[in-house]
Amino acid sequence: MRITATVNGEPRQADDVWEGESLLYVLRERLGLPGSKNACEQGECGSCTVYLDDEAVCACLVAAGQAQGRRIVTVEGLASGGALHPVQQAFVDAGAVQCGFCTPGLLIAAHDLLRGGGHPSDAEVREALAGNLCRCTGYEKILDAVRLAAARWQDRAP
Ligand code: FES
Ligand code: FES
To answer: Which atom of ligand 2 is nearest to the CA of 136?
Structure first.
């Protein structure tokens, strides 16, 4: 089947998609967007998190057909004009990236938390990121990064 969707603001099309294929597979293997990672393919790790019509979802759990005609934003779509999004820059500056496998999903989850404005408490940050597993950092630098992003990203424009 053919899937058409708006991906990172651009109309995109994937052909010969089979019925059991996930949105994650389509993004990575058919549309050349390898930012979203495939770590578990079971909805457990959050490394594949993307926005689907403004809702953060695990792309490995979304059937490709469900994405038909919808708006998708991946980690690649957070940056604009060659500049990292403030949330992305904060992860770099706080040293919150080691192997980087969890990072794309954490960036979408952190963006989703912060785009509503305000300065979430550490407990709120931990709760918002609870579905995103990291095996490297011990999470402290990720918390630092989200605090830094909250402080810098004043206008919270998505
Ligand atoms: S790859 Fe989708 S949740 Fe782990
Ligand atoms: S940086 Fe390696 S899993 Fe998080």
So the answer is: 2
